Amino acid sequence: MTKQPKTIQEMMTLLVEERGLDITGFSDFSTVLLDCNYYRLSGYFRAFQIDPSHGNNRFRNGTHIRDFMIPYLIDEQLRLLILRGTSSLEQTLRAHFAYYLAQNGGAYSYTDLSSYKTIKYPDGTEAREVLIENIHKWLERSSEVCIRHYRKNNEPIPIWSAVEAMPFDTLSKMISLHTNTTAIDELNQSLSLGKNRQRAAQIIHSMVYLRNICSHHCRLWNREIVLSPPILDATAERYGSYAYEDRSVWKSLIVLMDLIDGIKKNSTYSSMLIKQAESNDNYFWGLCHPKRWH
């Protein structure tokens, strides 16, 4: 059975009159519903509803619109900070990967199947074959002047140019699947990612996942992270005063903060992010302790 669309007024009637939301002193609720999308806001509603997992969507007594709009607005600002950090990480990974690969004889072999591990996806597809297809796709689509120059002259594209055409997820797969262990070890060491290549690859992959969440403007508050990063001993020691669950957003954020502080050689980034995250106690609790609705 398909759901029928509701007007803004019908949405307001549903939330206020039928479900008991208090909007006293808030005259712009109709604008909020139009601009923010009811479906997106509903992820914030759930924390204040009686039993949404079993269909009871009435708000608990005393719930005011500000209760979920505060975390909604903090989320907006935190996503911008996260994107700032993941962008810096992505640029650094591109540069370091290209440099260490080129220095270890891989400047032009990054499109060879033999440069990547033989790993199959559950459907039987070889991961390296999919990766090579994606690499060629991004190189063919790129409008970067230097890459257009190589294409026009039918010359091979060196890795230091090629990485600039790759999105973060493709770069992450190139790093995790590459067989040049010397280059990968030097890359990991340069970013303090530890000696365990698998753990380092998992950390990078989790940062891609975190970036994608923020790029799509998804909710962070009360969110359970599907790809949770491993925590290195040094990171755990630096952030040992915090209590958080394994699949919490905060776990991913301390990994990101540690990486960016290491890259920038100062704590400016972590200080800004912590200040934003801790600006509201209820919000910060939701970053550290996700709710698992069904």
TrEMBL record:
Pfam families according to UniProt: Abi_2
UniProt-recorded name of the protein: Abi family protein
Lineage: Bacteria, Bacillati, Actinomycetota, Actinomycetes, Bifidobacteriales
